[in-house]
Amino acid sequence: MRDQSFLQQRMPPMMTWAIVVIVLTLAGHWLQAGVHLNHDVSYFVHFDRWLLQGRTLGSDLFDGNLPMVWVLFMPSAALVQWNLLDEPSAVRLVFWAYFLISTALLIGVLSRLDSRDRASSVGWVVAFVLVATLGPG
């Protein structure tokens, strides 16, 4: 009888959100796995690998992008530099990690809203998750 009561319990809303986000993340990864990386993304990762090899931005390497873009792609470049992953896999892994962290932060911030604003916060989370996971690459 104890098993029946367990099956009749309601799942907490946060658990439902977590399952939905993870399922959509896996679906997004599956959709993006067959797509080639954008040439700009590949450039940033390759450029970061040069920085990790000791070259200097501004004297050895010239680029007009702000330094933040190099920090953003540095984890991917490090995974490639350490021979743990190839460039496409490293970029995808880091992107999905950034996505999951961003989603958790978004849900955490929006959960602090008043109950009258909950409907709009749900809309923001749904829009963010759908665009980031299933949107075109």
Characterise the protein shown here:
The protein is mainly α and 137 residues long. 71% of the residues lie in helices and 0% in strands. The protein contains six helices and no strands. Helix 2 packs antiparallel against helix 5, helix 3 packs across helix 4 and helix 4 crosses helix 5. The longest helix is centred in the C-terminal third of the chain and has 24 residues. The protein is elongated, with a radius of gyration of 20 Å. The chain starts with a helix and ends with a helix. The model has no long low-confidence stretch (mean pLDDT 83).
What can be said about this structure in brief?
The chain is mainly alpha-helical and 137 residues long. The protein has helices spanning 2-7, 13-33, 39-52, 67-81, 87-110, 118-134. The mean pLDDT is 83.
Biggest pleated-sheet summary: none
Q: H/E series, N to C? A: HHHHHH
Rounded to the nearest angstrom, the distance between the terminal CA atoms is: 49 Å
* Helical content class: over 70%
Q: What's the helix count?
A: 6
Estimate the global geometry from the Cα principal axes.
Answer: elongated
User: Structural class, please?
Assistant: mainly alpha
Low-confidence runs (pLDDT<50, min 5 residues)? none
Rounded to an integer in angstroms, the radius of gyration calculated over CA atoms is: 20 Å
The number of E-state strands comes to 0
- Summed over residues and divided by their number, the pLDDT gives a mean of 83
How large a portion of the residues is in β-strands, by DSSP E? under 5%
